[in-house]
């Protein structure tokens, strides 16, 4: 798979979200609840729950919060959330996918539409941009945490079942088939690598550069979407800054 390093940009977005821990924990609680509700509270037998638990730990979510969300799913709570994907275009014609977990479809659809229209974007019909993205496993190894060179990491990634390795000055980025993601992640950890990030994500097949005059508006749109309580993930086909 071809492409450019995006770890630097991801770090920037993660750092910008550090001030929003309370909101992030709230979103993660919903994901934990739904994963435990649908597949059971034992992460060893529920890969989806394990993935969300790993995501929660990576966000430094307190263990008590994680346990509370799972325990809530074990009870008789009639709480329910629908998983919905919205599609559209950001300023500059950049494709955008928005994943939401909501208990009120009308509220969420309205909020997402407002975010697009107020920030120079347009909502699209179902399927209008989804075909431009592929579901992938994404794993990052910070180069400062390993003495292994690119050849060694590539060999270990291939042995583990990974599809592609992209090396940059600060990181090794690994992409996998989503079904192989858990096995690749576990194999790399067993090989002694410390993973800076490991998640299932949506990767755009092609990227679009955001025009300089549209960049501020583009960032406002993404921020507005990510700030929504019901939005879990926002994916874009924007070209990385170094492309």
Number of helices: 8
Q: Which sheet architecture does the biggest sheet show?
A: 4 strands, antiparallel
The radius of gyration over CA amounts to: 18 Å
Helix content: 40-55%
Unreliable spans are: none
The arrangement of helices and strands along the chain is HHHHEEHEEHEEHEHE
Strand count: 8
Fraction in beta strands: 15-25%
Overall shape: globular
Mean of pLDDT: 89
What distance separates the N and C termini? 16 Å
Strand order of the largest sheet: 3-1-2-8
Core attributes:
243 residues, alpha+beta, four-stranded antiparallel β-sheet, 8 helices
Give the SSE map.
Elements (H helix, E strand, L loop, with lengths): L6 H10 L4 H19 L7 H12 L4 H12 L7 E9 L3 E9 L2 H14 L3 E3 L8 E10 L7 H11 L3 E4 L3 E6 L4 H10 L4 E10 L10 H13 L3 E6 L7
Helix pairs in contact: 2-3, 2-4, 5-8
Walk me through what this model shows.
The chain has 243 residues and is α+β, with helices and mostly antiparallel strands. Helix content is 42%, strand content 23%. The chain has helices spanning 7-16, 21-39, 47-58, 63-74, 105-118, 150-160, 181-190, 215-227, and strands at residues 82-90, 94-102, 122-124, 133-142, 164-167, 171-176, 195-204, 231-236. Strand 1 and strand 2 (94-102) form a beta hairpin. Helix 2 packs antiparallel against helix 3 (47-58), helix 2 (21-39) runs parallel beside helix 4 and helix 5 packs antiparallel against helix 8 (215-227). The longest helix has 19 residues, at 21-39.
